[in-house]
Please model this.
Amino acid sequence: MDIIQWIASAVLLLFGGYIAVMNWAVFVNNHVLKKQWASAIPFIGGFVLTMGIVLLPITGSWKYAWIPLLLDWGSVPVVIASLACWLSQPGERNTDKD
Model:
């Protein structure tokens, strides 16, 4: 059973890692290099990396499964950045008219 967990975990970690690296490449190209590039894939990289950590057959590894959600640009950081941009824009936020 351990070998199946190792293989599944490795596949998820590699795929999630690839998505996370591409999300950071999008950030660097769009915001640092000021090139017009693609958009980040929201939450996929962080969730897949989290599942890869959860499946690791290492005692206690699941305790660190939340870390990819903080490190992947397409997960929590993009939500915080989007919220900050939205809050910094002037204008009326409530579009409900009575």
Observations:
- The mean pLDDT is 87.
- Residues 2-32 form the longest helix (31 residues).
- Residues 2-88 form one domain.
- The helical segments are 2-32, 44-55, 67-71, 76-88.
